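Backbone-to-sequence.
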């Protein structure tokens, strides 16, 4: 490979402050899933300034191509997501959100600004690169059906077809300057559960005259945990959690119905389908046996995310070379979900974690919280490492 690690490190250093500025701009101007119009325009303007050709996809998505000038059929896709969350950010930050109630609390501003920085590095090096880099700026990761699924349907993995795709995600649990990898299954599938238990409300002092949906719901919640503890293969992690329960009665009022929302997550598609059937059958059966009616809806979400062994091993080895073995950690299974999983079901994928924490500075808040922030030196690691992975992958 003619492009040295030191050269990419120098370029990463030179584009670091520019990436910081772009990240702060995006952080100040967050947009919710599938509403990333200004973010998309911002990305397109920078690509235009760089003379990198692009096209729109999935309404607010952007796909760009950097074609290396050395003849090669190899194609590698690099992906960043662009949407923010409906969270109100803590006050007092000079680059805090200007859109009240919307915040980049999951680091997608980091992902997008990083991919723009990577575009600048790879564009500078294209005369020495063989093959093509496909840059995917994706909308709607935080909301079903997931922007990845829509972009795949519109052909993002075609014309040209990549042999692999690489993505990264911030992780405040890992210190800035470090990254994490895991080969094989990494993140869980994610399904949304909606249940209404309908009984007959009345006075709390006369329960025999009512069909108590609260008592019945309690039975259902307790019994359904056996789907995980007694039906799931213990070698396959599964999670069933209820996060919202609404029964609008009072101290002496039994309501007519109880409404619930929850999530089911696992790492096996066959068991996932079976579990859906068992959940519905169990909940409906318990309700009916106690005189109530249960409406149960499963909204199927993202599949599990799998990191293909060869491309992940290669990317991890490049990271060791670029950052040093002491700065590359092994990741455990992560039961959160990511719509990058759709890409991983279609092509060879590597999804790794970018350390963004700094315990000394108190930058430790988790994603999806009002206090989330990053150690910005991680941006230099981000743009340099992914550029290095792309150059090495295409060059070997």
């Amino acid at each position: 490979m003619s492009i040295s690690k030191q050269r990419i490190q120098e370029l990463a250093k030179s584009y670091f402050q520019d990436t910081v500025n772009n990240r702060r701009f995006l952080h100040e101007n967050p947009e919710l899933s599938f509403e990333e119009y200004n973010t998309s325009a911002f990305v397109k303007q920078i690509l235009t300034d760089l003379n990198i050709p692009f096209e729109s996809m999935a309404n607010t998505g952007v796909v760009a191509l950097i074609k290396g000038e050395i003849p090669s059929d190899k194609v590698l896709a690099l992906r960043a997501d662009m949407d923010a969350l409906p969270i109100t950010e803590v006050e007092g930050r000079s680059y805090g959100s200007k859109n009240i109630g919307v915040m980049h609390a999951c680091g997608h501003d980091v992902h997008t600004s990083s991919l723009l920085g990577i575009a600048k590095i790879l564009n500078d090096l294209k005369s020495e690169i063989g093959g093509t880099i496909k840059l995917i700026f994706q909308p709607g990761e935080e909301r079903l059906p997931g922007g990845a699924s829509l972009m795949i349907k519109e052909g993002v993995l075609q014309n040209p077809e990549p042999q692999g795709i690489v993505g990264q995600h911030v992780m405040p649990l890992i210190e800035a300057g470090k990254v994490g990898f895991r080969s094989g299954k990494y993140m869980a599938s994610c399904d949304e559960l909606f249940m209404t238990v309908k009984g007959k409300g009345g006075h709390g002092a006369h329960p025999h005259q009512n069909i108590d949906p609260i008592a019945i719901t309690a039975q259902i919640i307790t019994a359904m945990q056996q789907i995980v503890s007694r039906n799931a293969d213990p070698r396959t992690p599964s999670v069933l959690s209820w996060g919202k329960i609404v029964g609008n009665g009072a101290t002496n009022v039994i309501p007519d119905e109880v409404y619930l929302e929850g999530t089911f997550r696992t790492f096996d598609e066959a068991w996932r389908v079976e579990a859906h059937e068992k959940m519905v059958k169990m909940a409906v059966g318990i309700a009916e046996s106690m005189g109530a009616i249960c409406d149960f809806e499963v909204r199927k979400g993202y599949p599990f995310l799998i990191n293909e062994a060869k491309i992940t091993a290669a990317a991890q080895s490049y990271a060791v070379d670029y950052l040093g073995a002491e700065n590359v950690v092994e990741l455990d299974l992560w039961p959160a979900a990511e719509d990058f999983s759709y890409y991983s079901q279609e092509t060879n994928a590597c999804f790794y974690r970018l350390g963004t924490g700094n315990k000394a500075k108190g930058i430790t808040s988790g994603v999806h919280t009002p206090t989330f922030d990053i150690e910005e030196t991680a941006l230099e690691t981000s743009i340099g490492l992914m550029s290095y992975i792309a150059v090495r992958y295409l060059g070997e």
